[in-house]
Amino acid sequence: MSDKQDAAEGGRMEERLYQNRYQVDEGRPHVKIHPQAEDSPELQALMAICPAGCYRPTENGRVEVVADGCMECGSCRIVCQETGEIEWAYPRGGYGILFKFG
Amino acid sequence: MSEHFDAIVVGAGPSGNACAYTMAKAGMNVLQIDRGEYPGSKNVQGAILYSDALERIIPDFRDSAPLERHVSELRFWMLSETSNTSASHRNDGFEDGKPDRYTILRAPFDKWFSKKVREAGAVLITETTVVDLVKNDKGKVIGVLTDREGGPIYADVVVLAEGVNGVVGQRAKLRPELKPQHVALAVKETHFFPEEVIRERFNLQGEDDGVVIEVLGSVTSGMVGTAFLYTNKESISIGVGCLLADFAKTKIPPYELLDRFKRHPAVVPLLRGGEMKEYVAHLIPEGGYDAIPNLTGDGWVIVGDAGQFVNAVHREGSNLAMTTGRLAGECLAELKAQGLAPTNDNLKLFRDRLGESFVMKDMKKYRKVPHLLEKNRQLFATYPRAINQVMQAYFRVDGMDKRSKEGIALRNVAKARGGWWSVATDLVKVARAWR
Ligand SMILES: Cc1cc2nc3c(=O)[nH]c(=O)nc-3n(C[C@H](O)[C@H](O)[C@H](O)COP(=O)(O)OP(=O)(O)OC[C@H]3O[C@@H](n4cnc5c(N)ncnc54)[C@H](O)[C@@H]3O)c2cc1C
Ligand code: SF4
After folding, report:
1. B390-415 tens-digit pLDDT
2. Which own/partner pairs from B146-150 qualify as long-range (CB within 8 Å, at least 24 positions apart)?
């Protein structure tokens, strides 16, 4: 995927999430990656399939997660359960996504 | 909080609310805990509400529940990339004038249901996440730990109504982790319009009439899944969901799939000019009967999505959640009245009631469907495309006689599946799974 495409997609995701309400628990991310020697194919797939686009490539080609836009669906937790690369918990009570309509 | 409760209900979705309401009405001392700012703030549905399940809990719900439209028409679309073959069913004659299904928005609906639960006498604490269960030295569940200060909260029984992810049950080792082929990932957007626009676009007669459209075919790009488009009072809910395992394999971003659906020529005129006000994602349990975990143990019960209670074929989930919640509540109240402890043995009462109910009967009826769909993706791609080709050829006026057209059309269906034998086998498989 080219950088240009990446940027365009990042932009669209921001627009999509713009209307959503969040109460971000600053400094206490609820999704973390425990990097292993190499990123598993499962972890890499999350860059495409996380519905909030929280998983992105870093400059050195590894996968990173920024979960501010997370909708707490749990998909990443399930896809990577066997690789042990993801530490996942619900945000503290009251924090995270706040659906207005659901 | 060092108080002891008769029951703690984890979650204030339809299953937790049904259960807490039933127990509180029966005079039990109930604590309900939800991690959202308000009940519903974490919850997603299409959403069709089935009246029957709610009527059995709150018979006059129609007087106060935030209902969007009553569903007077069901449409089924089978899409190829550029065409659409559809069927519809319309019904204006409801029994006693009481519609059997409505569209709803879950956030306001869950808030309403939760108010009823509190009116019935249950205590609700929100903005609190249950992080683990507390067990005694014999392994019996005796309470919960939350992310609030103040230590554990104790109860005779803990009802896990925590939804599809079932994180608490897993952490306490009451149930296995979910598998990517047993859940669907769904994304959905809510687009707002003036009410008249919705009525005109969907040809709605009465003020509260509504249409729901269920969609199969090219929209899921060959993955096992469906799409939907539902009318609310002043908005349209549009979404698509496919097995998580299929997303992981194809690496198709779910929002791109939704965008493709929105760009389909059959959808474009329906969505024109609206304002998108929310984008959501949620999992749906689709593993069916064989994925149902153990539902009871000493001091605990699982209800709703946490127990995998979704009938994917009929798109029913919230009604199974309410029914399993109500049945658990009734059984726990009966045990309490008889002075019996909620042990796994005594909770046989709940397992039996569930077995006799439509919930387990339907889950059993479609037991083979998840397996069938997983192994036969052609049902989602090849047939919808072939059927659209047949319709196009059949209705094109091009000088060819109709009998020849029929011959070509049928041969095309067979060709799409590599021969009649495959078509016949597909039919047999579907029939078997439906039986
Ligand atoms: C896109 C989509 C469309 C659907 N369409 C339909 C439809 O049209 N009709 C239908 O009948 N069904 C439909 N369903 C299914 C339906 O939404 C579910 O079956 C139903 O919501 C299950 O109810 P529940 O109470 O078991 O779980 P949920 O509604 O998920 O509620 C779980 C509750 O538990 C709380 N919780 C979870 N963990 C914790 C914790 N650790 N501590 C405290 N609180 C916690 C959550 O905040 C939440 O309020 C759909 C689902 C989706 C995703
Ligand atoms: S829980 Fe869902 S939305 Fe959140 S990071 Fe994981 S996949 Fe993305």
Report:
1. 888 878 888 888 888 888 888 888 88
2. B146/A93, B146/B33, B147/A92, B147/A93, B148/A93, B150/B1
Give the count of Cβ contacts less than 8 A between chain A and B: 129
Reduced to 3 states (helix: H, G, I; strand: E, B; else coil), residue B35 is: coil
Residue among B212, B416, B434 at smallest CA distance from B312: B434
Q: Is residue A66 part of a domain?
A: yes
How many structural domains does chain A have? 1
Residue B48 has which token pair?
């069709």
Task: Note whether A51 contacts B: Cβ–Cβ < 8 A.
Answer: yes
Of ligand 1's atoms, which has the minimum distance to the CA of residue B230?
8
Instruction: Give yes or no for residue B216 having a pLDDT over 70.
Output: yes
Domain span at residue A47? 29-98
- pLDDT tens for B140-194 read 999 999 999 989 999 999 999 999 999 999 999 999 999 999 999 999 999 999 9
Contact assessment for residue B23 and residue B303, using Cβ atoms and an 8 Å cutoff: no
Ligand nearest to the CA of A52: 2
| B4-74+100-178+288-366: in CATH 3.50.50.60 | yes
pLDDT the model gives residue A9: 46
Q: Which ligand is nearest to the CA of B41?
A: 1
Question: Whole-angstrom Cα distance, residue B216 to residue B87?
Answer: 12
Decide yes or no: CATH 3.10.20.30 for domain B181-284.
Answer: no
CATH of residue A92 = 3.30.70.20
The answer on pLDDT for A39 being more than 90 is: yes
| Terminal-residue alpha carbon distance, chain B | 52
Per-residue pLDDT of A71-80, as tens digits, reads 999 999 999 9
